[in-house]
TrEMBL record:
This is Uncharacterized protein. Residues 1-19 form the signal peptide. It comes from Sphingomonas aquatilis. Keywords: Signal. It comes from the Bacteria.
Length: 162
């Protein structure tokens, strides 16, 4: 193969950050976003930007906070064991968002997600969601569980700026 075609192929191959995100991950992220924002705002691909940070290393979580997450010690240890696979600087999911209730760009929301940390059985996830509008910004750590009805969970408000 001529060198030109090799270079062209390399440039056109998506990088991990650009690759299409699996639909099940997109569903998880959108549900975490809806829970974090109080279910009131949809997402729009055009407003999702790169994550500024990943969640703090789970080893740094204090025992009091670990118990506050509602995770059992075994669940927390499982997520911690899978944490390194989720580290993705400037993570930007490439999703076809469910737009049933999209406010998205019209609302002015800027959204970012950390790459989700998934349990070994892929039924528990921990993801950080941040969003802003105008001069206020919010971030939450969402603990999500997969049930037969889909993803559900709760988000702990990690920070707010008003």
């Amino acid at each position: 193969m001529p060198a030109f075609w090799v270079i062209a192929l390399a440039l056109s191959t998506p990088t991990p950050a650009q690759a299409v995100t699996p639909p099940e991950t997109c569903t998880l992220l959108q549900k975490a976003y809806r829970i974090s924002t109080g279910e009131g705002h949809g997402t729009d691909l055009s407003t999702v930007g790169p994550a500024k940070t990943d969640p703090s290393p789970l080893a740094k979580y204090r025992p009091e906070f670990r118990s506050y997450t509602g995770l059992t010690p075994g669940e927390f240890a499982d997520l911690q064991a899978n944490e390194s696979a989720a580290v993705s600087p400037s993570y930007v999911p490439q999703c076809a968002w469910d737009k049933d209730d999209t406010v998205g760009e019209k609302s002015g929301y800027a959204v970012a997600f950390s790459a989700p940390i998934l349990s070994t059985d892929r039924r528990i996830a921990l993801v950080e969601v941040s969003y802003s509008k105008g001069i206020s910004a919010h971030g939450g750590l969402c603990i999500m569980r997969l049930s037969p009805a889909g993803w559900n969970g709760r988000c702990i408000n990690a920070w707010s700026i008003r």
